[in-house]
Amino acid sequence: MNKITFFHGAETRRLKKVIHKTRDKDLCRRANAVLLVLKGTSKSEVARVLQAGRSSVNRWLTWYGKHPIFNGR
Fold it and tell me: From CA 13, how far away is CA 56, in angstroms rounded?
């Protein structure tokens, strides 16, 4: 099970900014997945909403844990 540490408001706002500013749809999907999980949505529900596999959501969460805030893009 992937664990994501608690994020302060500034980091969550930065993630939302990434979603609104990026033209990279894949980056946007990953950021949305992270935000939904942080809000308490189950990984299965996130996968359904984003029309992705549960394994993809797990991979994105693992990737995010290693590269917080998507390198500030």
Answer: 24
- The 10 Å Cβ neighbour count of residue 33 is 24
Whole-angstrom CA distances from 12 to 2, 8, 19, 36 are: 18, 7, 11, 11
Q: What is the pTM of this model?
A: 0.74
Identify whether the C-beta of residue 57 lies closer than 8 Å to the C-beta of residue 46.
yes
Could you report the per-residue pLDDT of 16-67, keeping only the tens digit for each?
Answer: 888 888 898 888 899 899 888 888 899 999 999 999 999 999 999 988 877 6
